[in-house]
């Protein structure tokens, strides 16, 4: 079995979440967390499950994640179970009502990434997930590390019990 968590991160919060998810999904031999800029073609060889995570930036995934997903071929995705996550600002940490409503209205990265992957044949294994950061640079909102570990376990359970 080979699983991969591909992520991008500017301030380190998405990296922390990605690593916790990978650790909760299985052993280091089974699951790796790799930053999207460090990804090599062999990481995708014989892959069975792919998790993609991105910070939400202007309602979307980061440019590097977008390019990675756009470059994935249908022939690769058709063989893969997939899910996605993002990090996003905790709206309660934004003082301006206007900015809060602007950010809250445009959606988040995870669903948008998953939609693209499923469109090209990826088989969704669990619903996409969002993790909160306090302010733009973090730290992660209280409880989000546990949330990440629980979500990683959930992915693994879904994989082990799939029909
Ligand atoms: C330029 C910029 C745009 C952002 N846009 C959004 C957004 O649309 N929605 C949101 O919830 N958070 C937004 N954020 C907050 C990021 O989601 C937050 O910085 C990120 O989750 C931190 O993850 P990282 O430490 O892995 O970079 C934005 C941050 C920056 C710097």
Q: Which characteristics define this entry?
A:
single chain; 163 residues; alpha/beta; Rossmann fold; 6-stranded parallel sheet; 6 helices; 39% helix; globular; binds flavin mononucleotide
Structure description:
The protein contains 6 helices and 6 strands; from the N terminus they run βαββααβααββα. It has one domain (3-160): Flavodoxin domain (Rossmann fold). The protein has helices spanning 13-25, 63-71, 74-77, 97-105, 109-119, 144-160; strands at 3-7, 31-35, 49-55, 81-89, 123-124, 129-133. It is globular and about 45 Å long. Helix 1 (13-25) links the parallel strand 1 (3-7) and strand 2 (31-35). It has 163 residues and is of the alpha/beta class. The longest helix is centred in the C-terminal third of the chain and has 17 residues, at 144-160. Strands 1, 2, 3, 4, 5 and 6 form a 6-stranded parallel beta sheet that branches. Helix 1 (13-25) runs parallel beside helix 6. It binds flavin mononucleotide. Flavin mononucleotide (FMN) binds at residues 9-15, 55-59, 87-89, 103, 106, 133, 136, 138.
Can you tell me the CATH superfamily?
Flavodoxin domain
**What's the SSE pattern?**
EHEEHHEHHEEH
The number of domains: 1
CATH topology name, in short, is Rossmann fold
* SS strand fraction: 15-25%
Could you report the average pLDDT, rounded to the nearest whole number? 96
Shape: globular
List the helices and strands and how they pair.
Blueprint lengths: L2 E5 L5 H13 L5 E5 L13 E7 L7 H9 L2 H4 L3 E9 L7 H9 L3 H11 L3 E2 L4 E5 L10 H17 L3
Parallel strand pairs: 1-2, 1-3, 3-4, 4-5, 4-6
Helix pairs in contact: 1-6
The site of flavin mononucleotide has 20 residues, from helix 1 and strand 4.
């Amino acid at each position: 079995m080979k699983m991969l968590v591909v992520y991008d991160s500017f301030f380190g919060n998405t990296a922390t979440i990605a690593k916790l998810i990978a650790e909760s999904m299985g052993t280091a031999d089974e699951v790796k967390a790799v930053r999207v800029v460090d990804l090599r073609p062999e990481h995708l060889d014989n892959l069975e499950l792919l998790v993609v995570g991105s910070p939400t930036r202007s309602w979307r995934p980061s440019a590097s994640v977008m390019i990675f997903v756009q470059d994935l071929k249908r022939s690769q995705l058709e063989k893969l179970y997939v899910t996605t996550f993002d990090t996003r600002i905790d709206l309660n940490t934004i003082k301006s009502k206007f900015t809060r409503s602007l950010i809250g209205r445009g959606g988040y990265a995870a669903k948008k990434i998953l939609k693209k992957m499923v469109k090209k044949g990826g088989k969704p294994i669990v619903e996409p997930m969002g993790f909160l950061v306090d302010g733009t640079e973090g730290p992660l909102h209280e409880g989000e590390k546990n949330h990440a570990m629980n979500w990683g376990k959930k992915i693994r359970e879904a994989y082990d019990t799939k029909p």
